[in-house]
Design a protein that fits this description.
The protein has two domains: 161 residues, Gcn5-related N-acetyltransferase (GNAT) (Aminopeptidase, 3-Layer(aba) Sandwich); 145 residues, Aminopeptidase, CATH 3.40.630. It is built from eleven helices and 13 strands. It is of the alpha+beta class. It is elongated, with a radius of gyration of 21 Å. Strands 1, 2, 3, 4, 5, 6, 7, 8, 9, 10, 11, 12 and 13 form a 13-stranded mixed sheet that branches. Strand 3 and strand 4 form a beta hairpin. Helix 3 packs antiparallel against helix 8. The protein starts with 5 loop residues before the first strand and ends with a helix. The longest helix is centred in the middle third of the chain and has 17 residues.
Amino acid sequence: MSTELNTRVLTQPPELRDIALDWSDLCDRCPVTPFQRPEWVLSWIEAFSPQNLRVVEVRSEDTLVGLAPLLIYPRGRERVLAFMGGGVSDYLDLLVDRQKEHDIVFAILEAVRQLDDWTTLDLTDLPSSSVLHRTSLTRLVTPHDNCSALLLPKTKKELLQRLSKRQRANLRNARSRIRREGGGLVELATADTLPEFLDDLFRLHASRWSLSGQAGVLADENVKEFHHQSAPGLLARGLLRLYRLRVAQHVVAVIYTLFAHTTVCCYLQGYDPEFAHLSPGTHLMFSVMEDAIRSGMSKFDLLRGQEAYKRHWRAEIEATHRIQLARLDTVPAAPEELIAA
């Protein structure tokens, strides 16, 4: 990689669409989550029409080596500089090529420093793998939220052995009940069936949340539009796997997952309350984990939220983090100062 880095600030959606291929290539070289991919972020822009984009691009010659997908939004009297994708994304982060990562982070911060139309930097939902944890900015890191994840074994048998006695009994009972109903069929969405799978997800997710008198995130029409926009591209890239369970011709459960690198993100799910006695969510979740093991995945991330079912799968808490500061007068002003001690 050349030692000379060039930065540019992009403010318009067409500029971002123009670099989508380079952006995707950078994602393939970085340990980023699916929530930083162009298929996700560009669809978020289309669905939510954010104003004041401030995306910092870093290139080494013609190669994209860094990207900070930022925007500015008002919060009271503040003008907050933050990551795009908030609300629908469980992790937010910079995209930085591992070669010369500290120089690239410095170049991004220098470009941000030169912006004159924000008052507060607020970077939320940072994963533990964020490059920002490997710089002296880590002194500014505070806890933000919690996700839950479990490490996947090599075989289905080992996975069963890791479950509690109660969870193994729940799984056996769920499969026995489903067999008595005529058997269950697990299906995977294709390009042709994707729209109907999404409709099933929206319907069953609403049914699930209605039990607690809530609408759920998919009640928002902009969120639905976001998923209609993003799903085809994610599916085409092999990132999206959308599963559904049929019992006696009824769709009783749907789970939306994202497969990237060696991690599966279990993003959304829904089930039909009328079939709750069959425990369709338990049956389908284990089927998804089996598929993940067959695909060579090593981690199953249940993402945000502390729902009881996550404890049943023996998922461990993984914290996300936040960096906040006023302007950049407290940020290191030289590349060597960025290196964590």
